[in-house]
Amino acid sequence: MRSPHEVLIKPVITEKSMALKEDNKYTFIVDKNANKIEIKKAVEELFNVKVLKVNTMNLKGKKKRMGRFEGKTPDRKKAIVTLKPGDKIDLFEEL
After folding, report:
1. What would you measure as the largest C-alpha separation in the chain, in angstroms?
2. Distance from first CA to last CA of the chain, Å, rounded?
3. Selection from 25, 28, 27 nearest residue 5 by Cα
4. Residue 2 backbone class (left: φ over 0; alpha: ψ -120 to 50; beta: rest)
5. How far apart are CA 18 and CA 55, in angstroms?
């Protein structure tokens, strides 16, 4: 099994994800090969909270151009984690 630091890449800090925080939902960019069970275990182990639900979505990269050269931003996977009422992740509370 992979370590939690390999599964969770970074938190998503946007206006929309901060609004979800009020409903006890936290958003993370996760490894593309991670499943919901691995994501749940990683969050519970790293932050000592109880996870009720995990929603995932695969995001396609956008096409970008630099002059005549065309490229693409990488594909990524995002997970929205719902916690038990009363639990909080301190990483998000400082913002």
Report:
1. 52
2. 32
3. 28
4. beta
5. 16
The number of residues in the chain equals 95
pTM of the predicted model, to two decimals?
0.88
pLDDT tens, residue by residue, 4-35? 999 999 999 999 999 999 999 999 999 999 99
Residue 2 confidence (pLDDT)? 85
Domains of the chain (ranges, CATH numbers): 4-85 (3.30.70.330)
CA torsion sign for 90, 9, 74, 82 is negative
- Phi and psi at residue 94, in whole multiples of 5°? -75, -15
Beta strands per DSSP E along the chain: 8-11, 25-30, 51-59, 63-66, 69-72, 76-83
What's the whole-number average pLDDT of the chain?
93
Residue 68 has pLDDT above 70, yes or no: yes
